Amino acid sequence: MSSQPHAPSDDALAHSERLRALIHAQIDEAGGAIPFWKFMELALYAPGLGYYSAGAAKFGAAGDFVTAPELGPLFAECIAEAFAPVLREIGADAQFFEIGGGSGAFAGDALAHLAALDATPARYAILEPSADLRERQRAHLQQRLPADLFARVDWVDGPMPGDWQGVLFANEVVDALPTPRFVIGEGEVFEEYVTRDGDGFGRTVHPADALLGSAVRHVERQRGGPLPDGYRSELLPQLPYWVQAVAGGLTRGAMLFVDYGYARREFYRDDRDAGTLRAFHRHQVTGDVFALPGLQDLTASVDFTALAEAGTHAGFEFAGYCNQTSLLLGNRLEQRLAAHEALATDEAGRYTLRQQAKRLTLPGEMGEAFQAIGFAKNVEFDHAFLIGDMSHRL
């Protein structure tokens, strides 16, 4: 069987070539090299050309990867169960803020279940940078939701303006933030840059700036020793500023981030010396992040210790940290599965539901690789993390 079952079309290759030319031009303008994070930003978000800002299918069987909400309603309904007490506690002014709406599947299933739980938010705002994905989300939600619920959905261009109360949710968002890469050389910290290499791209290093250098030293202190020479990995020193920016004026409410990653000591193990950066194309994982710019997703695992630091530095109380299995089981996965099974019209439907639950929770699937971390301000949110607390690992 061919290792590339879906070779890109001529149109796709032409699209990629346009983005490659744009990145080459930026490298030339910068004097021959740009930081890796800038390459990643262009590859994913360059207007009209980047992976997330262009029109290709991303999600599901026809795309490059499957996110938890695309599997069916169970994931979104469990998240709704976790957030419902917070939304009810806040009351009529509560808002729901989703960052990166994907196909719109999460918003549709979550809003429908929140309505059933008598916890409908006054507004459901989606921050989605891709105009193409916004239209897909709008079409899906208009079809999925009754008119009164759809009327609450709103697309925003940035963080919520002014003070607001409610909940913030981000699934597989932090892993796609353009990340600096660092390299240790003779005990010093360098930053990875991208150069032109013929028609493609190459790597070089420049001395790290003060922000990245001090962030690497902070990691070394926490792990109890220096990183070895040649060690290469990712680190987001801007993460605290990003969390503060997306939370905006959230004066009362909760935040929940779900993503794949590790606590810091696990993330920066000696043997993880090439980092966690990888590309996804047609459900295949590849280490060649420079291939097919604009046609493949680039992603790096999340340092959940850094996320815990960022959330608390932004003025929130830490609410809990667990893997996805524990999050879902602790927020009524078994009851939601049973409710859907009872409505299924045949055994095939029930089998599909059970397979959905398995993919969400089995260790070899999403259950352990994906983790969840929560924060609260002036509300109770510990109930979302009653099972499988892993905060001692942070």
Automatic annotation (TrEMBL):
Extent of the signal sequence: none
Keyword Signal: no
Xref: Gene3D superfamilies: 3.40.50.12710
Enzyme class (EC, first level): transferase
Enzyme Commission number(s) from the entry: 2.1.1.-
GO BP of this protein: methylation
Gene Ontology molecular function: any one: methyltransferase activity
Keywords: Methyltransferase, Transferase
Coiled coil: none
Annotated InterPro entries: NDUFAF7, NDUFAF7_sf, SAM-dependent_MTases_sf
Domain of life: Bacteria
Name the UniProt record assigns to this protein: SAM-dependent methyltransferase
Record organism: Luteimonas fraxinea
